[in-house]
Amino acid sequence: MLRSILSFLLCTISLTVVGQRTLSVDKIHEDFDFLITELKLQHQGLYQYVDSSQVNLALDSIRNTIHEPLTKLDFYQKLRCVIGLTNEAHTSISLPKKEMIKLGLSNTILPIGVMVLDNNLVLTQNFGKPIPKELLGAKILKINGVEIHEILKNIYTLLPTDGFNETARKEWIAGVIFSLLYRIEYGAFSEFKLEVEGVNNKKVDLVLSSLRLTKFKGKNKQFEEHDYDYEEFVFEQVNDSIAYLSVPSFDKSATDFESFYRSSFHKIDSLNITHLIIDVQHNGGGEEGNENLLFSYLSDSVIQKYKRVTMMDKPYQKNKNDEGIIEDKWAFKDGLGYRGDFTLWSDYYSNLGYKKPDPSLLFKGKVYVLTSGLTFSGGAEFSSLVRMTNRGIFIGEETGGTYQGNVSGYSEYVKLPHSKIEVSIPTVHFQINVNPEKEGYGVIPDYTVTNHREDYLSGKNSRKEFAIELIKNKKTLIVE
Prior knowledge:
This protein is an alpha+beta fold and 480 residues long. The protein folds into 3 domains: 2-95, no CATH class; 107-211, Pdz3 Domain (Roll); 229-413 and 427-471, 2-enoyl-CoA Hydratase, Chain A, domain 1. The protein has helices at 2-6, 25-42, 52-64, 72-84, 97-105, 148-156, 167-172, 177-186, 257-270, 290-296, 313-319, 323-327, 378-388, 453-458, 462-473; strands at residues 92-94, 112-117, 120-126, 139-143, 146-147, 191-197, 203-209, 234-237, 242-246, 275-279, 306-312, 331-333, 336-338, 366-371, 392-396, 405-415, 422-432, 447-448. A hairpin with a 2-residue loop joins strand 12 (331-333) and strand 13. Residues 242-449 form the Tail specific protease domain.
């Protein structure tokens, strides 16, 4: 628990400001205090996992490091560390549009894409001048003389996660996000000296020229990229007893969920499938209700999904006359807004207009759920439903969203008066009806299966393959 709260220490390094317009210390302090006040009035996650005295000490310590003028970008870095203390990844922070454009047009960005595989940072793309193609998949050991584990430790503090989760950060820095965060954390460079280790275990020194963000386009990609089945809505009959169902999102615009589920489970029924693999390793959530409908095909029981769904006084008073608040029968009691009891159950489909599945299509066989750090928000809530009912076996990595819920829903946008930095504060606390022994963690898999570098290079869905072999062998497999 203390590891999360102490991570703020990495945010207390003095920043050098050269040739950029700065904000005075007084104005920065005013913005800082304004944000903290708003977080305390609207964000229920701020003190959820860590004692308020420890959180306040961390906030004060960050504030006390602000003793000289800062650029908006440097102040933004400090505030990202503040956002990390909320232990809630639905909270977001944005630079003013002018600063974003300036950053995007600056010729200062590391021109690569990456992934964390086997706990190594791996080179997956290059947008700059050509480098040997055999370096695809190379481990990055150092950048500008700094060990990569030290770089990752610093950059991870800029990414808020739910509770004390570690798997989400490793997923979220993939692609070009790492390069952007590197720019924020380490400043501007015209070139980057990389020490890498290729798949042949030979070390190579690279010198890469910086790029503008506008150059990070598909036409400038040097390496071919794979498509993965878990990134698409897929139904696949694996054999006469096994089916695979990929649900990569619950976003209402992603697909016609009611039709996709009905069609898939009709096939499952007609094929007499007895083992169903449900892949949500890429599912970062979406519209509330789509996860409940999927669960409704796995259980004929209606369970209480949430203990309660609440909102603090300030956001409740602002939103209490909204149509959605009225439809869900919110009520104010003891200083909090409470959503109506009928919305707490697993057959609540929000305003999507779904009907309960045809009882003849309910799947009663064995379920295997594939998860990763990208399994977040609604994806994690679906995982919680399956875990709390012991309805399935989990394969993969800890979900990015916590087992006990999240703070999301209605967001309030706060613009800081001097820096004009904007913060999106989630205001609805969805508390899953569970009492975990260890708070602040996601659904932990029964079988831990990570994606290896070889899997990435071959386009293999290693968790799916593991599940199939587990079913076929009907015995515990050893995972390295």
